[in-house]
Amino acid sequence: MKYRVEVPGRFHDCGEESVVYFDLQSGDTHLVSDFAAHIIALLADRTMDIQELVTAVAPDIEADDLPALTEALPDILAELISLEIVEQG
Amino acid sequence: MPLRNTLSSKDVGTLLKAGELSFRVGPYIYNLHSSLGQLAEGLSELYADFPAASPGDFVDYAVSIQRGGPLSTIRRKVQFLFDNQGSFAPIPIKQAYAFMEWGMNWCVSVHANEYLKLHAAAVARDGLVIVMPGVPGAGKSTLCAALGLTGWRILSDEHALIPPGTSRVVPLCRPVSLKNESIETIRAFDRSARFGPVSKDTHKGAVAHMKADLTPDCHDQEALPAHIMLFPRYSSVDRQELTARSKTESFVLAAYHSFNYSLMGESGFAAMQTLIDSVECYDLVYRDLDWAIEAVGQLHDRARQP
Known about the structure:
The complex is a heterodimer of chains A (about 90) and B (about 300). With about 90 residues, chain A is of the alpha+beta class. Chain A has one domain. Helices cover about 40% and strands about 20% of the residues of chain A. Chain A is built from 3 helices and 5 strands, in the order ββββαααβ. In chain A, strand 3 and strand 4 form a beta hairpin. In chain A, helix 1 (about 35-45) crosses helix 3. The radius of gyration of chain A is 12 Å and the shape is globular. Chain B is an alpha+beta fold. Chain B folds into 2 domains: about 5-110, no CATH class; about 115-175 and about 210-305, no CATH class. In chain B, the strands form 3 sheets. In chain B, strands 7, 8, 9, 10, 11, 15, 16 and 17 form an 8-stranded mixed beta sheet that branches. In chain B, helix 1 (about 10-20) packs across helix 2 (about 35-45) and helix 7 crosses helix 9. The longest helix of chain B has 15 residues, at about 95-110. The model of chain B has no long low-confidence stretch (mean pLDDT about 95). The interface of A and B includes residues 14, 18, 22, 24 and 31 of A.
């Protein structure tokens, strides 16, 4: 299964634990975690499957945190899909 | 500063009846037309110091409150007209003053999309603005009125107008709308506060408006920089406190409190970014006005330190 963000949106990052994301396609504004924002940015850059995403996020994540975040990835993707930010196909 | 031509020098009732009562509110010119005595009384009390429009000024908002014919006279109802078009169902004549004020707010709420519009009170001191968004009933108008009565300049009780790309607030000073217990709270807070007619049994309960142009510069039109965004909340039970809040969450909450953020699309997002980047964000829970005024004053003084 591949994932992508077809139209890259806009971020407002105040350096806090969450980030504001403006979806250019829907015009909706979302409050997302900084990790989810990172996933959105990666998928806006290129289409990836979960394994490719794990590989892509690994360099930016503390090694201790990686297993937990990898485990959380499917749920984060499911939520981003339900919000129509991420598309799968 | 040149002496202003204010409505106080004119017979407001006569002008109102003739449809020739035009005055400036911030960047806009309102023209009002009505034969109702209660409106003339309220306007004379609350708008006397507003700058009268000059002949030939473009009227942005033409508002009329009129009896709708014999049946509406029997039913004691009046109609609010905007540009001679009926926009709302007829309302009881005894609520006409409150309805006129709401209608004047409505004019800005549904138009004026050249600004990012927040549903917020805005007050200023030392040329710096505190923007106070809040849902109806949060206590922003009560706090705004009390701040105005203690020397703060009231820029608006209802709309914070932000030119996109700036963190400035365009003044739109009109009377402060107070509801139910807040009316007596403010009367008790300052016996010299001046009020218009009380409209009872509206869908929001009793409503009265307080004169808000209380400082010498209150009708200046220059936009002023915002430096604090404060989310006030009145509570009779919770602990009074002033706490810093997340800018990210404040962004989303301020967007929620905007009349036209979604309508503006990406430019609304960009406008909110500029604003949020320029302000410190706080929550204020209060029940005692004196305490709240002290807390807001200290916050303002701290935030303006370089």
